[in-house]
Amino acid sequence: MSAPVENWSHVFAGRRYAVLGLGVNGLPAAQALVAMGASVIAWDDNEARRGAAAAVGITIGRPSDASKLDGLILSPGIPHALPVPHPEAAAVMARGVPIFTDAELLFRAVRDSGSSARFVGITGTNGKSTTTALLAHILADAGIEVAAGGNLGPAALALPRLGDDGVYVLEMSSYMLERIVNMRFSAGAMLNLTPDHLDRHGNMAGYEAAKSRLFVGQEAGDVAVFGIDDAATAAMATRFEDGKRRIVRISGCQRADIFARGRKLVDHSGVIADLDAAAALPGTHNAQNAAAAAALALAFGVPREVIGRAMASFPGLPHRQRVVASVAGVTFIDDSKATNADSAARALDCHERLVWIAGGIGKDGGITPLAPWFSRVAHAVLIGRDAPEFAATLASAGVSCEIAGTIENAVPSAFAAARRIGVDTVLLSPAAASFDQFADYAARGRRFAELAARLVSMEAR
């Protein structure tokens, strides 16, 4: 490690980086690198994004044209290997230039600036955003200097420099973790593991290998938290029992080091939190998220009573089972973040009877894995590209459904069905990606909320 650089604005002085991808991660990363003294060249295949970056002073050019580079920061969604490497990434890698995630460069900047702030990484197929936000909320409530971001946003490199007692809480996707080189997480959590992003990682083994990189840089005394509610993550915990790190097993529904007994979060010393008081944390999946956040908070010395108080005041995250409207006794819940069947299952499990809005670009297997929850669906309203496939699956199981096509058609149809059938919940939990109709899941969720609010206005007339 180089000698500390006290001035944050000079921490990368004399270094030259390329940034490929200028979206919500890449553009802030490029701006942060410039602010830290680096020379930056950036590229995006989208002309409008290149123009937006140039407008804020970023030098535009292809990384392959740069004569010397200390590294390429590749936006998480751009592949460097599977399924097909981006041509610019391939050209730069052929020259021996290392590829980084911006989280690793944040780690290097913090250490090079002389700060020993600690880093927490949180990953898993589902629940990582909520757990990241919840832990940051708990630490802040405990008076600990904290900055949270990564996959959740903001971009890791956009986070401020923290002092020695500060804690960075980073949501780490598999796309980010596969590019980790020397980053150390003094505490990390692996929540769960179900098939996802297999085109990017080749197969389930590749996906698991990417996730497990969260722990490879850990040192003696570091903490590794593992969910045990799925077999793959429970097995990963056993593989990391090498005596170096402290392993903490957590669960939302079965005995573990920290687990939910009913709606009480407990450990060997007793109750940590009453989850019935935590309105933003419904269901067994959120009980597991809460257990992980508690384990990490306890590792940083947060008192138990502070953890319980902070969980009760946690506001939750947008598009994750958030109530957005109530109309004539029908509650509209936005769970647009549920882009796969496993995530949708967690939302369906929280309701006895509902009208379900689903559809978009389905993942492998579609909604077939959700069959155990079909009995809870009074009626389904389907949208997006794979609505016909979802409809066929539901019809074969005897579930009432209709194809609305768009969210604009789906919301009033779902409301009408709820009133007709006599159920009090309309749940948007698509079990599919949004890119056939929306820029992202957040745009889908916002549109759902807008349409539900319109129903409120209409009923009030």
Termini separation comes to 67 Å
Task: Determine the mean pLDDT.
Answer: 95
At CATH level 3, the topology of the largest domain is UDP-N-acetylmuramoyl-L-alanine:D-glutamate ligase
| Count of individual beta strands | 22
Major beta sheet summary:
9 strands, mixed
Summarize it.
The protein has 461 residues and is of the alpha/beta class. The chain is built from 15 helices and 22 strands.
Task: Describe the protein's architecture and organization.
Its EC number is 6.3.2.9. InterPro entries: Folylpolyglutamate_synth_CS, Mur-like_cat_sf, Mur_ligase_C, Mur_ligase_C_dom_sf, Mur_ligase_cen, MurD, NAD(P)-bd_dom_sf. It catalyses: UDP-N-acetyl-alpha-D-muramoyl-L-alanine + D-glutamate + ATP = UDP-N-acetyl-alpha-D-muramoyl-L-alanyl-D-glutamate + ADP + phosphate + H(+). This is UDP-N-acetylmuramoylalanine--D-glutamate ligase. This protein has 15 helices and 22 strands. Helix 1 links the parallel strand 1 (about 15-20) and strand 2 (about 40-45). It has helices spanning about 25-35, 45-55, 85-95, 100-110, 130-140, 175, 200, 205-210, 230-240, 285-300, 305-315, 340-350, 385-395, 405-420, 440-460; strands at about 15-20, 40-45, 60, 70-75, 100, 120-125, 145-150, 165-170, 185-190, 225, 245-250, 260, 265, 270-275, 320-325, 330-335, 355-360, 360, 375-385, 400-405, 425-430, 430-435. The chain starts with 15 loop residues before the first strand and ends with a helix. It folds into 3 domains: about 10-100, NAD(P)-binding Rossmann-like Domain (Rossmann fold); about 110-315, Mur-like, catalytic domain (UDP-N-acetylmuramoyl-L-alanine:D-glutamate ligase); about 320-460, Mur ligase, C-terminal domain (Protein-Tyrosine Phosphatase, Chain A). Strands 7-8-6-9-10-11-12-13-14 form a 9-stranded mixed beta sheet, sandwiched between helices. With about 450 residues, it is an alpha/beta fold.
